[in-house]
TrEMBL record:
Keywords: Glycosidase, Hydrolase, Plasmid. GO terms for cellular component: cytosol. PANTHER family: 6-PHOSPHO-BETA-GLUCOSIDASE ASCB-RELATED, GLYCOSYL HYDROLASE. Belongs to the glycosyl hydrolase 1 family. It holds the Pfam family Glyco_hydro_1. One of its GO terms (molecular function) is beta-glucosidase activity. NCBIfam families: PRK09593.1, PRK09852.1. Gene3D superfamilies: Glycosidases (3.20.20.80). This is 6-phospho-beta-glucosidase. One of its GO terms (biological process) is carbohydrate catabolic process.
């Protein structure tokens, strides 16, 4: 790898999500959300996939989101730690149900607005730019039970009202916005992604893609509103990124990989280009899907995003013969196990060159600035007897990926910034575990919610501090 140079003003920081960090799940008037219903343990995946209805909480289950790491109570301490590292950007999300507890009230919840206003003011105090996701896997449960969530077109107007409330309430504090987190995960984890639960006699593909249409129209409408409220607002879409490699050079495998990439990029094709891609017509026809559209939808969809944000943890592999037997169960996005890569503790292939490949592909496709808003290594961290966490494996992972991002910039790709996931240990969205740790800051909490919640700086904390101070030119560790 050559020495990489990052542009002046490049934004460095980290990312959290409300549902994985805030806790205090009923404080300040907050309503229940989809994530609040997802338990730890054997029922977690069936609930996430929309296969098992979970509309009420059970006494015999543990729900990791309910307390999480109590960012709601400790945000000033946590933002001070981010400032100590030198963050110039902090990605977080607003819990829809803190602003509108049921999702469909006429007036917002003043306590929720006050909380987020305080969070963003705290960021500004340290010169940290908030990057805010409006919907990060947490639909108010009332909208699921009353309307069927995003399968219902009424969600578009409700989301638009919520978004306008946020744009107006936080105007001058937030200028970087994302509409839906990892919008393509709707296809892979429908309940956690979009609040969808399936009935036995319906076509799940029809439900998912109709919901996708409603989200895409809502995203475009909200992008329009953001620009009306303040022309300086910058709105991005957000993709769970990572290219699919063909398992072999057999043409059928190459075609399978292309199809899997299209499945992933479908949403961003619409959000970045302003209309449905040509391949969608055959896809819908072969899956028995008929999208109900209104005449105004085509015009609304033309309000495209200003930039493309994405997560990148690993690349994927596809073949024409993918089966449950030969694909990895390590992620909801199914992939063959790539024998050329080492894997994380949770089986995710570590592929920094794949990041450069993904970034080049996306810029070739969209010609819009990129923002890498999630990248990190989930690992089991050990606290030594003297209170240290020597996470050299995390430093190595991040160093390689920052170098790859730098190479992509050298390739000519405009990149706004980089926020690692998750900058402080938090509840893992995939498994609900605390032991799957990503942060520069260790949180004393275990998978069952036991611990003091004390924050402890890891070795990577000091490493990332020097990376930011050098604008990415010093990636070495002592």
């Amino acid at each position: 790898m050559s020495e990489v140079t990052f542009p002046e003003g490049f934004l460095w920081g980290g990312a959290l999500a409300a549902n994985q960090s805030e806790g205090s799940y009923r404080a300040g008037g907050k309503g229940l959300t989809t994530v609040d219903m997802i338990p730890l343990g054997a029922h977690r995946m069936p609930v996430k996939l929309g296969l098992e209805k979970r509309f009420t909480l059970r006494d015999d289950e543990y729900y990791p989101s309910h307390d999480a790491i109590e960012f709601y109570q400790r945000y000033k301490q946590d933002i001070a730690l981010m400032a100590e590292m030198g963050f110039t950007v902090f990605r977080t999300s607003i819990a829809w149900s803190r602003i509108y507890p049921n999702g469909d009230e006429a007036e917002p919840n003043a306590e929720g607005i006050a909380f987020y206003r305080s969070v963003f003011e705290e960021c500004r105090k340290y010169g940290i730019e908030p990057l805010v996701t409006l919907c990060h896997f947490d639909v108010p449960m009332h909208l699921v039970t009353e309307y069927g969530s995003w399968r219902n077109r009424k969600m578009i107007a409700l989301f638009a009202r919520y978004a306008r409330t946020c744009f107006e309430a936080f105007d001058g504090l937030v200028k970087y916005w994302l509409t839906f987190n990892e919008i393509n995960i709707l296809l892979h984890s429908p309940f956690s992604g979009a609040g969808l639960v399936f009935e036995a006699d319906e076509n799940p593909e029809q439900v998912k893609y109709q919901a996708a249409h409603h989200e895409l129209v809502a995203s475009a409408l909200v992008t329009k509103i953001a620009h009306e409220v303040n022309p300086a607002n910058q709105v991005g879409c957000m993709l769970a990124g990572g290219n699919f490699y063909p398992w072999s050079c057999k043409p059928e495998d190459v075609w399978a990989a292309l199809q899997k990439d299209r499945e992933n990029l479908f949403f961003i094709d619409v959000q970045a280009r302003g209309s449905y891609p040509a391949y969608a017509a055959r896809l819908f026809r072969e899956k028995g899907i008929e999208i109900a559209m209104q005449p105004e939808d085509a015009d609304i969809l033309r309000h495209t995003v200003d930039f493309i944000s994405f997560s990148y943890y690993a690349s994927r592999c596809a073949s024409a013969d993918m089966t449950a037997q030969n694909s990895s169960a390590a992620n909801v996005v199914k992939s063959l196990i790539n024998p050329h890569l080492t894997r994380s503790d949770w089986g995710w292939g570590i592929d920094p060159l794949g990041l450069r490949i993904t970034m080049n592909m996306m810029y070739d496709r969209y010609q819009k600035p990129l923002f890498l808003v999630e990248n990190g290594l989930g690992a089991r961290d050990e606290l030594t007897a003297d209170g240290q966490i020597n996470d050299d494996y995390r430093i190595d992972y991040l160093r390689q990926h920052i170098q790859a991002m730098g190479e992509a910039i050298a390739d000519g790709i405009p990149v706004i910034g980089y926020t690692t996931w998750g900058c402080i240990d938090l509840v893992a969205a995939s498994t609900g575990e605390m032991s799957k740790r990503y942060g520069f800051v260790y949180v004393d909490r275990d998978d069952l919610g036991r611990g003091t919640l004390e924050r402890i700086r890891k070795k990577s904390f000091w490493w990332y501090q020097q990376v930011i101070a050098s604008n990415g030119s010093n990636l070495h560790s002592e």
